[in-house]
Design a protein that fits this description.
The structure holds 2 protein chains of 2 kinds.
Chain A: H1 9-26, E1 30-35, E2 38-44, E3 53-57, E4 60-66, H2 68-88, H3 96-113, E5 120-126, E6 136-140, E7 146-149, E8 152-155, H4 159-169, H5 176-187, E9 199-205, E10 213-216, H6 218-225
Antiparallel strand pairs in A: 1-2, 1-8, 2-9, 3-4, 4-5, 5-6, 6-7, 9-10
Chain B: H1 20-27, E1 49-50, E2 53-58, E3 61-66, E4 70-72, E5 75-78, E6 84-88, E7 91-98, H2 99-120, H3 126-139, H4 141-145, E8 150-158, E9 163-169, E10 175-178, E11 181-184, H5 188-198, H6 205-222, E12 238-243, E13 246-249, H7 252-260
Antiparallel strand pairs in B: 1-4, 1-7, 2-3, 2-11, 3-12, 4-5, 6-7, 7-8, 8-9, 9-10, 12-13
Helix pairs in contact in B: 2-3, 5-6
Classes of the chains: A alpha+beta, B alpha+beta.
Chain lengths: ~230, ~270
């Protein structure tokens, strides 16, 4: 019987983190921005059917980048958790904070205990029900690191470049159209313009009755981009 | 992967799929527990019962309505109960029978439809929704054997067929599509006769609303368990229209104004 080589825990964690980061960097990025109407999410995604952004609950959305099957599974887990909580307690008791914590727990546990970490980064966004109530943007990394961000957040391998762009371009009080345009511009590399067919756009709009989530597609997206 | 402490993620064989009901059965079976059936034993107490609800197909959709009374034996249990609900954006469900179980069933049904939509990224077909409700009524069978019957009425706008459709159910979950209209509950026979005499193919939603209010009034006239418009307290039936734009309740003021039209009508009788 052969003896396994000793590998230090630091090395194991570093290898896993590198592996996850590489996987995430292969995919395309996604941004979320706060605007007057609520929160806008813009993803570089040429597919019309395989979504990166989804509705989770009345005022909560989920977005993921990286490996599709993995963040899709996390999305379903989130929808289940939210619907169960809303059914057993009340719709008002479902919030992004506890959902983001559940994601962080799950990702953290998979990162340390499983053979392979998830190659994903996810966003849990919640729109306030009144303009006075702040929006929430929770950004969760592949290892369970949980960050509470405001104004805008960037997910994906190209985050540094996009963040630099948004630092200059973002200002509070954007309209929905402006936020979408800035988001689209931030995702495009130097000298490239991403058209409506390259983008997946969705919004959490404060003004909508119960379900704040809405996809922005087709002619409406074309109009808002121009 | 196995279950994690918080997120309900399942291994392949145990995955409940897009069904919220299956999810609850797996994760929290206690919250679905129905009273065990005890054959031949009547319940030693009276429970609130919902009474008359109806659905009428009209041009471009369906009109649904329900009175506001719940009875418990000979007493009025609640004079403002709501028995008509939006099931989702394009369908509605109205309930008659044991109010406590029925309202819980509707709540579960609403979550079930939305849950499916969010997991699958697409809504169920109207037929699919109707079948889901059928399964829920059937799951209530043990309670129904004890007399705790829940019989819903389901209607909605079918985008694939571009028209409104009405489904009725029996206590074992049998689902029956109605051609034109249906009514359910203790006053249903009176309401149904009124609708039958006035229903026409292609009638407008506005006409169907008038008929629904008129027939609920007729039901309340003949059946003590059905509540008529209460002008003193300002309690009126719930009425909703479902068409390609979605499910929409009529404003209470609108129903009140339409109920006023009954005043001094032929129902007044005598030499006024």
């Amino acid at each position: 019987m052969s003896m396994p080589f000793y590998v230090s825990p630091e090395q194991v964690m570093k290898d896993r983190a590198d592996y996850a980061r590489k996987g995430i960097a292969r995919g395309r990025s996604l941004v979320a921005l706060e605007c007057n109407e609520g929160v806008v999410m813009v993803a570089h995604n040429p597919s019309r059917t395989l979504y990166k952004i989804s509705e989770v609950y009345d005022r909560i959305a989920f977005a993921g980048v990286g490996k599709y099957n993995e963040f899709q599974m996390l999305k379903i887990g989130g929808v289940r958790l939210a619907d169960m909580k809303g059914f057993q307690y009340s719709r008002e008791d479902v919030n992004a904070n506890s959902l983001a914590n559940a994601y962080a727990q799950t990702l953290g546990q998979v990162f340390t205990n499983e053979m392979k970490p998830y190659e994903v980064e996810i966003l849990v966004a919640q729109v306030g029900s009144t303009p006075a109530e702040p929006n929430e943007l929770f950004h969760v990394l592949y290892d369970g690191t949980l960050m509470d961000e405001s104004d805008y957040t960037v997910l994906g391998g190209d985050a540094e470049r996009i963040s630099d762009f948004l630092e200059n371009a973002f200002k509070p009080g954007l309209s929905l159209a402006e936020a979408i345009q800035i988001g689209a511009k931030s995702l495009a590399e130097e000298g490239v313009t991403l058209g409506a067919d390259q983008l997946e756009v969705a919004a959490l709009e404060r003004g909508r009755a119960r379900r704040a989530f809405r996809r922005i597609t087709g002619d409406e997206l074309l109009g808002l981009l121009s | 992967m196995n279950e994690t402490p918080l997120l309900p993620i399942f291994s392949d064989g145990a995955d409940p799929g897009p069904s919220f009901l299956n999810l609850l059965r797996r994760v929290s079976p206690d919250s679905l527990q129905m009273p065990p059936a005890v054959a031949g034993h009547a319940l030693p107490f009276e429970l609130a019962h919902g009474t008359t609800v109806l659905a009428i197909r009209c041009e471009g959709g369906v009109v649904m309505a329900g009175d506001r009374r719940a009875t418990s034996g000979n007493s009025i249990a609640n004079r403002r109960i709501e028995k008509l609900f939006a099931a989702d954006e394009y369908s509605g469900v109205a309930i008659a029978g044991t109010a406590g179980l029925a309202i819980e069933m509707v709540r579960l049904f609403q979550v079930q439809l939305e849950h499916y939509e969010k997991i699958e990224g697409a809504s169920l077909s109207l037929e699919g929704k109707a079948n889901q409700l059928s399964q829920m009524v059937r799951a209530n069978l043990p309670a129904a054997m004890q007399g705790l019957v829940v019989v819903p009425l389901f209607a909605g706008f079918d985008h694939r067929r571009d028209r409104g459709r009405v489904f009725s159910y029996d206590a074992v979950g049998g689902k029956y599509e109605e051609a034109d209209f249906s009514a359910n509950g203790s006053g249903a026979v009176h309401a149904r006769n009124w609708i039958k005499s006035a229903w026409r193919e292609g009638m407008s939603a506005d006409d169907a609303i008038s008929i629904s209010i008129r027939s609920l009034f007729a039901a309340a006239d003949e059946d003590t368990a059905t509540g008529g418009p209460d002008l003193v307290r300002g309690i009126y039936p719930l009425v909703a229209v479902i068409n390609q734009d979605g499910f929409k309740f009529l404003e209470e003021a609108d129903v009140a104004a339409r109920s006023q039209l009954l005043l001094d009508g032929p129902e007044r009788g005598g030499a006024a």
